[in-house]
Amino acid sequence: MNDRPPILGIILAGGLARRMGGGDKCLLPLGGQTLLQRAIANARPQVTELLLNANGNHLRFTRSGLTVLSDEYPNFPGPLAGIHAGLQWQENHRPEQQWLASFASDTPFFPDNLVSELHRRAQETGASLVLARSGEQTHPIFGLWHRSLLPAIRKALQSDQTPRLQDWAQEQKAESVIFEQTGYDPFFNINRPQDLYDAEALLPLTDRAR
Fold first, then answer.
1. CA distance 119 to 130
2. Dist CA 146 CA 138 (whole Å)
3. Where are the alpha helices (DSSP H) in 10-149?
4. Which pLDDT tens digit goes with each residue over 76-118?
5. Are 103 and 26 in contact (CB under 8 A)?
6. Residue 181 CB neighbours (<10 A)
7. DSSP reduced 3-state for 57
8. Residue among 125, 123, 129 at smallest CA distance from 144
9. Rounded Cα gap, residues 210 and 203, in angstroms
10. Closest by Cα among 191, 188, 141, 147 to 168
11. pTM check: above 0.90
């Protein structure tokens, strides 16, 4: 953690996984571990405490050992609802903390210096939101969120149509950090069955990089 303040983390697994045929995408296996196990192993050393955002029966995630939070808004409004759940829990249970780091559960190779780099950028710029980038693409689920954003997030979720996470982040003038692609995109994510096969092929490259 170096000299960073306490930072709460949340893994987002609250989606419907339609392109994978539904179900819990994060429980799919990759190289002998589930996607969720890989996300936990990578995220946990980067934060003070780690939560999981998932909907439905929480018992299926008991083995994760994480506190599980459901969306407080109905009808699966998207990842912004997961961020809201994390920030609301932080306000209720860790009011002394200022930052929430968010991670995707379907992105098995994300950088192990993600949070430190996002926090460094926040300190440099004074931004309340910093997102990860690779190449020309922003990855809004991988972000560092200041607790002051909670009212604006709540307002967005209470609107008639919840905005796309990336569009909302742009409205907040989010800063970003570019992470290098050294043979593979560290934010390669699993959306379709074919992506699991592609991820298997990337495992040797990612193991060498760590």
1. 8
2. 18
3. 35-43, 79-93, 114-125
4. 889 999 999 999 999 999 999 999 999 999 999 999 999 999 9
5. no
6. 12
7. coil
8. 129
9. 11
10. 141
11. yes
